[in-house]
Design a protein that fits this description.
alpha/beta; three-stranded mixed β-sheet; 42% helix; 19% strand
């Protein structure tokens, strides 16, 4: 199953407008709550200048970038954990994603209604946090009940599991997301196994007005102060501007538009890359006359498993990997020149693939 980021937030904060800009999927964007009832799913390409540079050197027949799935999930309101609004559907949808993009409204506009009647990013964040925490508390309480039954056997590992479970429960009971819990390796393993909503990595996207896309504003600063200490990144994006940029025909036109606003590139490009990193993904490349292609793997993946992303036979019959570092490929200009310079390495099954590696796999099935 492809790795997915879910766009979440209160109703009417700009989620669907941003989703449209990212994917050109034209999800319904309307000025009333619950415009999105069913999750929209879009596949977006990850911008990577390295792919373009390799293509210039190789001149392949095809260039194939890597992708990430983005899911636009229905807006959430207070009481979602108890089924209010579309709460049950929202929580079920968010459980299916690997990471969260939390869109928070950080602009004033009397023509666009807010579900709570005023602009307060900290309150909005806490509303969603609390609903997710309440749902996680249900999950942890049920799991603790089972762990305590198991611990009656007297096994030390079961007793430690109960202790870690209690720590997680206390952390959530204080209103804190699971991702901020201070746990040892055993505790982290239990946390991962519980698959809690608030344990998912998160990126906060401040939907701002046009004047605030570079440096933010007073509203974004309030949100940033509220998440100090939380392992999360913050981006400023104007969803309306991104929608306008997405309507332009060429990448060059989009970059020029962004530069006129003081940006190096469209906010959507920054958001896509941040989503990619949020999922702890890296890219390796294959480069030949037929195609130059980017492949997605988890950070820390070893060579045989990386080969398996191309085809299961590559992993099953893995013999070795021939590896060229991206900078060396650019420096010498071609694979033969890299080999002549002695810069291509031959790696075995324990080799951990690095971001930007250019790989050629040898296998036998």
């Amino acid at each position: 199953m492809p790795l997915r980021c879910g766009i979440v937030g209160l109703p009417n904060v700009g989620k669907s407008t941003l989703f449209n800009a990212l994917t050109s999927a034209k999800a319904l964007a309307a000025n009333y709550p619950f415009a999105t009832k069913d999750p929209n799913i879009g596949v977006i390409t990850v911008p990577d200048k390295r792919l373009d540079e390799l293509a210039k050197l190789v001149n392949p027949q095809k260039i194939i970038p890597t992708t990430v799935e983005i899911v636009d999930i229905a807006g959430l309101i207070k009481g979602a954990s108890q089924g209010e609004g579309l709460g049950n559907q929202f929580l079920a949808n968010i459980r299916e994603v690997d990471a969260i993009i939390h869109v928070v409204r950080c602009f004033e506009d009397e023509n666009i209604v807010h579900v709570d009647g005023s602009i307060d990013p900290v309150r909005d964040k806490e509303t969603i946090d609390m609903e997710l925490v309440l749902k996680d508390l249900e999950t942890v309480e049920k799991r603790l009940e089972k762990l305590r039954k198991q611990a009656k056997s007297g096994a030390k590992e079961d007793q430690r599991a109960v202790e870690h479970g209690v720590l997680i429960l206390e952390h959530l009971s204080a209103g804190n997301p699971a991702r901020t819990a201070d746990l040892d390796d055993e505790g982290q393993a239990l946390l991962k196994d519980m698959m809690l909503l608030t344990a998912k990595p998160i990126l906060y996207v401040c939907n701002v007005d046009e004047l605030s896309v570079v440096s933010g504003n007073e509203i974004t600063r309030r949100l940033e102060a509220a998440i100090v200490g939380e392992p999360a990144e913050v981006l400023y994006v104007c969803a309306g501007i991104e929608a306008d940029i997405a309507e332009l025909d060429t990448l060059e036109e989009r970059r020029e538009f962004a530069q006129e606003l003081g940006l190096d590139e469209p906010g959507s490009s920054r958001l896509i890359r941040s989503s990619y990193h949020l999922l702890d993904l890296i890219t390796y490349f294959t480069a030949g006359e037929k195609e130059v292609r980017a492949w997605t793997i988890r950070r820390g993946t070893k060579a045989p498993q990386a080969a398996g992303v191309i085809h299961s036979d590559f992993e099953r019959g893995f013999i070795r990997a021939e590896v060229i570092k991206y900078d060396d490929y650019l420096k010498f200009g071609s694979e033969p020149a890299v080999k002549e310079a002695g810069k291509m390495s031959v790696e075995g099954k324990e080799y951990v693939v690095h971001d930007g590696d250019i790989m050629h796999f040898r296998f036998n099935v």
